Amino acid sequence: MLVSNMNHGLLGSTALSALLCLIPLCVHAQPSFSDVPLTHPRYIAIEALKQVNVIQGYPDGTFKPERIVTRAEAVTLILRPLASAVQMESAKEISRYTDVPKDAWYAMYVELARDKFGMIDGPPQTTAFSPSSPVNKAQFLKLLLRAYGVDPSRNYGEITTPIASDVAKSADWFYPYIRYAITASMEVVEKENVINPGKSLTRGEIARLLYDFLLYRQGARTQFLLDTAEKQLIDALSFLQSHNTADGEFVTTRALLSSRGALARSPDEPIAKGAVKVSEGFKELFLADEAGANSAWADVTEHAGLAWHKAEEARAFGLDALAVQIQEIAKKMADEARAQMR
């Protein structure tokens, strides 16, 4: 098991780092909303965000976690804890969009999103905001990351391989946002290899995304990311045995992103460094396997050799078990390729 030895705490005393308690001990035993009981899968995220006034409920005491969120609501929810009083005042009675009335309850947030936070485009690129349209996963991730100053094109930009069956092209506008979401523990993909970037989000789902993002920024998700990477690598072993290179590419890319995300928050953590090397080693194994399917034997030996050396680096960080498996597979692949070339 990939286990971190670090004890994580708040990374400072700024307003952003103090938004959430890192451990659910701060969550009340008595639920704040009648429709979000202790057993609700989004309870911790919703309750924690409620306590710091990031989210609100309805007058009848409900939260309506299954209610679809509009674009106007998404922008408002993200900016409420970020915008200063001065910024709010400057955005009053301004609207650059044909479908956003100046007196709309969300108008100032939309203007702030355009003018101060760079979350959305405005004229002349676009003249409409579509405030009542549902916000989908890709759109919300873009809004959220831009609001917090994250430029995903500058983070992990060298990773361009398919992430899932519906996030396969790095040229797609949403690819960098999904890529970063995985490194920040916001998105976890199971064996189905589907992310659904166009899925309309509910209030509960948005609460979970925001909660996990803020925890990651505070350094509290390293172990979760390492656990996620390990699960993906276990799947990778299975796919490698069945020569399923397509699904193998998905899971190894996600394992690499998860381990890179862990390393970004804990750069001195040996186990995170090792997880990156193991993930890179598995990627080389799948490249070798694909080359073998095409009888490109010289390429097989090259990728198998790279996989072996990546595993050797991982062993230096204490990941012997997975590293040894990589080296055994790599040696077998290389031996078989050399036999074919004789």
Order of helices and strands: HHHHHHHHHHHH
- The helix-and-strand class reads mainly alpha
The whole-number mean of residue pLDDT values reads 89
Distance between the termini: 40 Å
Beta-strand level of the residues, as a percent range? Answer: under 5%
Segments where pLDDT lies below 50 for 5+ residues? 5-20
Q: How many H/I helical runs?
A: 12
Number of strands: 0
Which shape, going by the Cα principal axes? Answer: elongated
Question: What level of helicity do the residues show?
Answer: 40-55%
Rg on CA atoms, Å: 23 Å
Major sheet size, sense and barrel closure: none
Q: Which labels suit this protein?
A:
342 residues; single chain; mainly alpha
